[in-house]
Sequence to fold (208 residues):
Amino acid sequence: MNLNDQIKVPAKAAESIFKDRGSKFIGHVFNVSEEAEAKALVQTIKKQHPAAVHWCWAYVIGLEGEIAKSSDDREPSGSAGKPILNAILKQGLTQTLVIVVRYFGGKLLGVPGLINAYGSAASEAIAFGGIANQLVQIPVFVTCEYEQQHQVIRIAKQLQLKVYPDFLDLDSGISIETPPSKINELKKQLIEARFDTYQLKDIKLYPC
Fold:
C-alpha cells in the first residue's frame, strides 16, 4: 500500500474572477470525494451561469490522485481544461474540483491567452479557498476473544495507534486505526502474535 499519511485538499469552497480583454473568467473550487459529486457540481454551476459561453473544469479525485480528468468545453483543445488541471496538480491537491466559467467579452484571446486566463482563474480560486491537510487512517478490525484483547492493545500502543474495543454480538475484537506508513508493520506484528484474522475497513480522513 503506497498511500501517504496525509493528503492536501481545498480548505473551503471559493470563487475568483479573472478578466482579460473584456472576457470574464469566474473560477470555482470545491472539495469533492466522488466523480458523481464533481459532475453534479458542474451542472449546478452551469445553471447558476446560464448566460456564460463556456463552463470548463478539471478534477483530481482519490487518495493517490488516481482519477484526473478535465474538459475544454468547446474551447480549443488544451487551452482550458489542461491549465485548470495543472493548477490543481501544481498545489499537490486531490479530492478537488475546479470549474472556470467564461463570459465572452467580444475579443479573441488566442490559445496562449486562454491558457493564461483559465490557469489564472483556477489558481486564484484555489488560493482563495486555501489548502488543508487531512490525515489518512486505515481502520483494522482484529477478531479476538476478550482475554486476548490486551495483547492486541499492547501491539497497537507500541506502534502508537488508536484502539477501539468492540463487543458487538459474538464478533468481539479490537478496532485499530493506523496511518498507511504503519500498516505493514501492524500486519507483521499481528501475524507474529498469531492474530491472523483481521479485516481492513473503509479508509477514514481526519482534519490535521
User: Anything to note?
Assistant: The chain has two domains: 6-129, 135-207. The CA atoms of residues 111 and 120 lie 14 Å apart. Residues 110-129 form the longest helix (20 residues).
